[in-house]
């Protein structure tokens, strides 16, 4: 129990009035930048980095850990309220979160999201405290073959739930893959689809794509429906603004499952926190289908709880990978790495020995940050929900302004703004034609991971395809995938059930109702 | 209810303030063109925050600010395309003597690989500041104990993959130099780019198949893993052995042609007067003498390589030719 003693020492260092103030400042700033579309915690840390020269290392790291978690607490707020998620990590939360808000349950959705983020953060940090070195060893079991298997698994698992029409889903997926191809090819340095525009050499930033497709697209969609009856009006929340005991009991397992899915992803550099949030969403949706009355699509609390916990759990265990391996698995972690280096510390196997005191204080600060953020965000939930009482035109105009500010602030590039408008317009056209938007983002996130890991695996092994199935991890993932696909095919081909998917669904629903009837 | 509204208003106000704050920083540059470099200086870091250029820019900023050499220094990040977006912007600031940009070896490669129309020879060189040395390393359990062991196997099988940073980076060019020195055609080199030092070290340490068995990167990326006994340095690409690394130089091992270093320097926009150039050089020289810069060099394990404008200009011109040749040999150009 050395860890507990060290952690207690860490709390001792952090629990001074000054350091507590830095935790609160960081948590507040992080939430603020998280709420705004386009701005994220990486941005906030980058801009504050030069100002922390005058701070002592501990104060700077404490503040940054508050920002780090804060960004993930705040990012789902705009998504839930207005269907305009602030960052790609909040996309999965938005589906059911906004549906809940439309059903007048915005405060409950916000509270579920805040508690989910808290659960994920705390559980992941506990694991980092006790198992950071073991987690680091797990990361060394991964190579390009494993990453490719993971990407493929995520592709299939996620695509099966986010798209209703296979053809439109595939179209959106292809569009996303095309967007992801823009930029300099990592392996050869060849420019792809850049049209000799230097601003496109590094590709189109995921921030620009998320904000354009989801936020700008949503604004145009709402504007396009203005004055018509179509149910785009935001519904002010009603009823008690707190979670009922029943809601809490339903969300609790989803929070834990989400954290369980998120934690392993923080350790490996495989596409950041988006993949686990989508996987958690997929899991919850599948579980929901087995219920007597599936709620997904109409605001299921599990669909908010799971992804949000997964996102923060990933962030928490990413901190473990950073401390134990020096491996930054997210943009914000990369900046924290820079912060460590600025103070002459090098995260990695020797950090715990050389700078043990500061590491344990940082871990203690992560716990405190999660608690402060929960305390900060829970009371704010009903307050944020009051935003919906503003006239829609002001609200969405505000979103547009903040989205443009956020996109411009990220790279100070006018090209990004032009791209944002163009992609937003495209997203609007897609929505009008019932093309789903989620596959676009999934392709943008997973496409490059799949491509580069496959190419690395091939080129590093002398083009031996067996590399792809040479470890227990890859074999396990592919078996799981094959089983899943076989099960889906079996269910659709079952002779008793009509051939088309829609009818099959109706049949299932009917079964469920019958079941319910016979029981009552 | 009124209390709620007030709080909500405060929240919106705060968010607005934060955003405008971001803008103030982003747009710190420009405006008062007549201002003197001594009162307000802008440093362009042609990369995102957290990278090598950014670090150098911020260390420079810290040194001149802390010692009161310049009244107000801002660092502006202009990321993209191997630093060439920043270079393009610097060229457009023609005649602005209050702006400096950090540059380095990677930008030479970026320009050659087609990043925009601006070249490093279009801007005004001020000074070369510091160098980072490259290290060739393998996992501790690797069968290769020396560089010669590795090269012997490599000559047998040139498809052994070598890991490093992005395509066209100094890591890549050094690998090409080593191939040439070992009698392997650089065009046959199997080089696997990685997004960062962390990814590269993980690939080296990973036991999974399809990962790289040998890596080339800056000493900083490998330092702790070498100290911690998980990586073994086969050789350092430096004129002399490095303090604290138990590895010979490549020249000692008989590969004298391998000599690229990851240098950093500062350049100013084109079209500034000689007096303005002398002023920027004076600021940089004073900065160079500060304790905080000395500590920065020590902390980041840089090697101080200060040279003035004329020598620096010749050096850049020479590196351009060399880099172009290497990229051609590697089959990238």
Automatic annotation (TrEMBL), chain A:
Keywords: Membrane, Transmembrane, Transmembrane helix. Residues 20-441 form the DUF112 domain. The chain crosses the membrane at residues 20-49, 109-132, 144-162, 169-187, 199-220, 318-338, 358-381, 393-409, 437-454, 466-490. It holds the Pfam family TctA. It comes from the Bacteria. InterPro entries: DUF112_TM. This is Tripartite tricarboxylate transporter permease.
From TrEMBL, chain B:
The lineage of its organism: Bacteria, Bacillati, Actinomycetota, Actinomycetes, Propionibacteriales. This is Tripartite tricarboxylate transporter substrate binding protein. It comes from Nocardioides zeae. Belongs to the UPF0065 (bug) family. It holds the Pfam family TctC.
């Amino acid at each position: 129990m050395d860890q507990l003693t060290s952690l207690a020492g860490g709390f001792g260092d952090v629990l001074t009035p000054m350091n507590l103030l830095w935790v609160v400042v960081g948590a507040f700033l992080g939430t603020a930048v998280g709420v705004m579309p386009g701005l994220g915690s990486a941005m906030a840390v980058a801009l504050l980095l030069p100002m922390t020269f005058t701070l002592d290392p501990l104060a700077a790291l404490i503040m940054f850990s508050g920002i780090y978690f804060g960004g993930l607490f705040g990012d789902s707020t705009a998504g839930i309220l207005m269907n305009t998620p602030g960052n790609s990590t909040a996309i999965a939360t938005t589906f059911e979160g906004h549906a809940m808000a439309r059903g007048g349950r915005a405060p409950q959705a916000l509270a579920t999201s805040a508690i989910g983020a808290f659960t994920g953060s705390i559980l992941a940090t506990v694991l980092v405290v006790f198992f950071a070195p073991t987690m680091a060893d797990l990361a060394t079991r991964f190579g390009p073959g494993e990453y490719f298997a993971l990407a493929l698994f995520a592709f299939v698992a996620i695509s099966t739930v986010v798209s209703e029409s296979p053809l439109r889903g595939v179209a959106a997926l292809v569009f996303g893959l095309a967007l992801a191809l823009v930029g300099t090819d990592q392996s050869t340095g060849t420019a792809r689809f850049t049209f000799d525009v230097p601003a496109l050499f590094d590709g189109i930033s995921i921030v620009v794509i998320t904000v354009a497709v989801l936020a700008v697209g949503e604004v145009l969609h709402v504007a396009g429906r203005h004055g018509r009856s179509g149910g785009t009006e935001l519904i002010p929340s009603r009823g008690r603004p707190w979670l009922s005991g029943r809601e809490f009991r339903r969300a609790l397992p989803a929070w834990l499952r989400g954290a369980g899915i998120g934690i392993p992803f923080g350790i490996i550099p495989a596409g950041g926190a988006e993949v686990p949030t989508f996987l958690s969403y997929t899991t919850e949706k599948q579980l929901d289908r087995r219920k007597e009355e599936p709620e997904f699509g109409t605001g299921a609390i599990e669909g908010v709880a799971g992804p949000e916990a997964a996102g923060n759990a990933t962030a928490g265990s990413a901190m473990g990978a950073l401390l134990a391996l020096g491996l930054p698995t997210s943009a914000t972690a990369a900046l924290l790495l820079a912060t460590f280096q600025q103070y002459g510390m090098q995260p990695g196997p020797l950090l715990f020995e050389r700078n043990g005191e500061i590491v344990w204080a940082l871990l203690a600060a992560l716990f405190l940050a999660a608690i402060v953020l929960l305390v900060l965000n829970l009371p704010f939930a009903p307050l944020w929900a009051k935003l919906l009482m503003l006239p829609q035109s002001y609200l969405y105009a505000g979103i547009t302004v903040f989205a443009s500010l956020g996109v411009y602030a990220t790279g100070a590039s006018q090209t990004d703004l032009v791209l944002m408008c163009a992609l937003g317009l495209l997203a609007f056209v897609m929505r009008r034609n019932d093309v789903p938007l989620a596959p676009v983002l999934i392709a943008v996130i997973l496409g490059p991971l799949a491509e580069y890991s496959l190419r690395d695996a091939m080129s590093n092994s002398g083009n031996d395809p067996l590399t792809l199935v040479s470890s227990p991890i890859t074999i396990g993932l592919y078996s799981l995938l094959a089983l899943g696909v076989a099960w889906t095919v079996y269910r659709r081909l079952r002779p008793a059930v009509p051939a088309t998917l829609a009818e099959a669904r109706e049949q299932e629903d009917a079964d469920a109702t019958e079941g319910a009837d016979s029981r009552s | 209810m009124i209390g709620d509204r007030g709080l909500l208003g405060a929240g919106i106000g705060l968010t607005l303030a934060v955003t405008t704050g971001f803008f103030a920083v982003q747009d710190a540059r420009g405006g008062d063109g007549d201002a003197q470099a001594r009162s307000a200086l802008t440093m362009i870091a042609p990369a995102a925050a957290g990278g090598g250029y950014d670090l150098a820019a911020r260390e420079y900023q810290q040194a001149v600010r802390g010692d009161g050499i310049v009244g107000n220094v801002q660092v502006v990040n202009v990321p993209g395309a191997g630093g060439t977006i920043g270079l393009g912007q610097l060229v457009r600031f023609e005649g602005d003597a209050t702006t400096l940009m950090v540059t380095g070896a990677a930008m030479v490669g970026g320009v050659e690989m087609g990043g925009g129309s601006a070249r490093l020879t279009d801007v005004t060189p001020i000074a070369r500041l510091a160098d980072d040395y490259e290290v060739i390393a393998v996992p501790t359990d690797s069968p290769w104990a020396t560089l010669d062991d590795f090269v012997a196997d490599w000559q047998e099988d040139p498809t052994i993959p070598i890991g490093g940073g992005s395509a066209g980076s100094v890591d890549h060019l050094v690998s090409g130099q080593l191939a040439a020195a070992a009698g392997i055609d650089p065009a046959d080199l199997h080089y696997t780019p990685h997004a960062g030092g962390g990814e590269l070290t993980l690939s080296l340490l990973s036991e999974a198949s399809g990962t790289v068995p040998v890596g080339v990167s800056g000493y900083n990326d490998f330092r702790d893993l070498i100290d911690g006994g998980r990586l073994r340095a086969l050789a350092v690409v430096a004129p002399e052995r490095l303090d604290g690394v138990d590895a010979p130089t490549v020249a000692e091992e008989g590969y004298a042609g391998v000599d690229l270093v990851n240098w950093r320097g500062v350049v100013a926009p084109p079209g500034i007067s000689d007096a303005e150039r002398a002023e920027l050089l004076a600021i940089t020289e004073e900065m160079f003498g500060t304790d905080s810069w000395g500590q920065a060099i020590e902390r980041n394990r840089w090697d101080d390589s200060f040279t003035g404008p004329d020598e620096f200009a010749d050096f850049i011109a020479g590196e351009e030719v060399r880099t172009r040749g290497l990229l051609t040999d590697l089959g990238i150009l």
